[in-house]
Design brief:
Elements: E1 5-10, H1 17-28, E2 36-41, H2 47-53, E3 59-63, H3 80-85, E4 90-93, H4 96-100, H5 106-118, E5 122-127, H6 131-135, H7 139-151, E6 160-164, H8 178-196, H9 198-203, E7 206-209, E8 228-231, H10 239-244
Parallel strand pairs: 1-2, 1-8, 2-3, 3-4, 4-5, 5-6, 6-7, 7-8
Bound molecules: 2-phosphoglycolic acid.
């Protein structure tokens, strides 16, 4: 069974009302391939605006982060129920900027992932190693540890997409080579087969993220275990559309 090509856009903490509006209107004006799933993740403050402006049937909207609890005394948090209430369908969890800057732990990320799924959101679960970890040869170990925290408490992975994003490739302009990324994706899928079962592992979409742009996206085209991309910087630019169309 072929896995559907998937492109996520992570705007991070960028933009204004006006710039978010022009990104969404630009997407609305394009003829996008019907068989590519697209999810755009604006800053939480612009989630409602993005949902309201989006007119593309193949584009859904996601948050970049959610908390692991319901509404209550949690100043400043994004609550999954409120994300759903705004009409968004997805959330990211475990982005490396939250793991490293905000110091979110594997277990906390797993709890957030579980809570989001329980409330009806689909999740793009981000994993990946730092440069030091890569140099020490523990890339797979790190990815496995990050995945295992989730598989310990979640058995049904049908609403999860995994994004492998090596930290050293994010925002640096130094994307992993398609060969290196494919090798890691293959190992991630093999690990998942052992932990969540072959059937689920075969179905799960594994995205590559880290300095993907309109130019390098087509180079990943023939890689069997790379089912799409999670795009940061380039998702703010018109070339995001070329990435969506990179498999045509
Ligand atoms: P980048 O970010 O495309 O700007 O490298 C990717 C990400 O952090 O999701």
């Amino acid at each position: 069974m072929a896995r559907q090509f998937f492109v996520g856009g992570n705007f991070k903490a960028n933009g204004t009302k006006q710039s978010v509006k022009s990104i969404v209107e630009n997407l609305n004006s394009e003829e996008l391939p019907k068989d590519v799933e697209v999810v755009i993740c604006p800053p939480a403050l612009y989630l409602g605006l993005t949902v309201d402006l989006n007119k593309q049937p193949t584009v859904e909207v996601g948050a970049q982060n959610v908390f692991d609890k319901a509404c209550g005394a949690f100043t400043g948090e994004n609550i999954a129920e409120q994300v759903v209430d705004l009409g968004a369908k997805w959330t990211l969890t475990g982005h490396s900027e939250r793991r490293t800057i905000i110091k979110e732990s594997d277990d906390f990320i797993a709890e957030k992932t579980k809570y989001a799924l329980d409330k009806g959101l689909k999740v793009i679960l981000c994993i990946g190693e730092t440069l030091d970890e890569r140099k020490s040869g523990i890339t797979l170990e790190v990815c496995a540890r990050q995945l295992d925290a989730v598989s310990k408490i979640i058995k049904d992975w049908s609403k999860i997409v995994v994004a492998y994003e090596p930290v050293w490739a994010i925002g640096t302009g130094l994307a992993a080579t398609p060969e290196d990324a494919e090798e890691t994706h293959k190992q991630i899928r093999e690990h998942l087969a052992k932990t969540i079962g072959e059937d689920q592992a075969e179905k799960i979409q594994i995205l590559y993220g880290g300095s993907v742009n309109g130019k390098n996206a087509p180079e990943f085209k023939d890689k069997k275990n790379i089912d799409g991309f999670l795009v940061g910087g380039a998702s703010l630019k018109p070339e995001f559309v070329s990435i969506i169309k990179s498999r045509l």
